[in-house]
Amino acid sequence: MKFLSLIFIIVSFAISSPSFAQSKDEEFPVEAQQTENTGPYVRETHGAWEVRCVKLADNETCTLYQLLKDKNDISVAEINVEVLPLGNQASAGITLITPLGTSLAAQLGWHIDDEKIRQYPYGWCEQSGCVARFGLTQEDVTSMKKGANGKVYVVSIATPNEPFELNLSLTGFTAAWNSVPQPTQ
After folding, report:
1. Residue 87's domain spans which residues?
2. Residue 12 lies in a domain
3. Positive or negative CA dihedral for 149, 152, 86, 42?
4. Does residue 153 sit within a domain?
5. What share of residues in the chain are helix, strand, coil (percent, to 5)?
6. Burial class of residue 95 in the structure, from the number of CB atoms within 10 Å of its CB (0-12 exposed, 13-18 middle, 19+ buried)
7. Is 120 among the domain residues?
8. What letter would DSSP give residue 157?
9. Which of 7, 54, 129, 181 could covalently link to 39 via disulfide, CB atoms 3.0 to 4.6 Å apart?
């Protein structure tokens, strides 16, 4: 162990010595162009919804975001709502990310207030979780604007007969939605 510590100290010293360093011109011979890219950042918050944006040059792209919690107030999933351009069948694009270990065969359950539960398939899983993407019509968006609460149902492979019921607060949804400009085609 002492030998490894000694090697680490010697390598650290060698790397930090002036003879090891390069000048800026040798390291980066061409100056990097400055861009006006920033993000992601929270532009504003409306009730339970954050408006998260990314700015690329003169273009700001924003989505609505909420962290979903279970009945014990434990964060379990996240939802991003993207305002889609007019003229599409869907007015909003939903991306919902649930934890790894989600039963993909069970699909994601979703409803607003007392509506019937709808099922949506998962597309894939990655390191951050399992992803379900689906569209909402203008009628669905209006339902969310008028609604009080929604529920999202996630089934774990560990407890397939006991789905997690996640609260989807609609407090502030209308204000958050209205703060994001409708993109053009």
Report:
1. 32-179
2. no
3. positive
4. yes
5. 20, 40, 40
6. middle
7. yes
8. S
9. 54
In tens, the pLDDT along 11-61 reads 333 333 444 344 444 454 444 444 566 778 999 999 999 999 999 888 889
Q: Structure tokens of 152?
A: 């999202």
Q: Where are the beta strands (DSSP E) in the chain?
A: 38-46, 49-56, 59-69, 75-83, 92-98, 108-112, 118-120, 124-126, 129-136, 149-154, 164-169
Contacts of 150 (CB under 8 A, 6+ apart): 110, 111, 112, 113, 144, 167, 168, 169, 170
CATH code: domain of residue 66: 2.60.40.1880
* Chain-centre distance for alpha carbon 144: 19
**Gyration radius from the chain CA atoms:** 23
- Look at residue 9 and give its three-state secondary structure: helix
Q: How many domains does the chain divide into?
A: 1
Furthest C-alpha separation in the chain: 71
User: And the tokens for 83?
Assistant: 């305002």
For 22, 112, 152, 157, the CA distances from 163, given in Å and listed in that order, are 58, 17, 10, 10
Name the DSSP letter for residue 109: E
Q: pLDDT tens, 107-119?
A: 999 999 999 999 9
Does the residue 4 lie in any domain?
no
- Rounded distance, CA 145 to CA 148, Å? 8
pTM over 0.85: no
Helix or strand run (H / E) with residue 25: helix 24-27
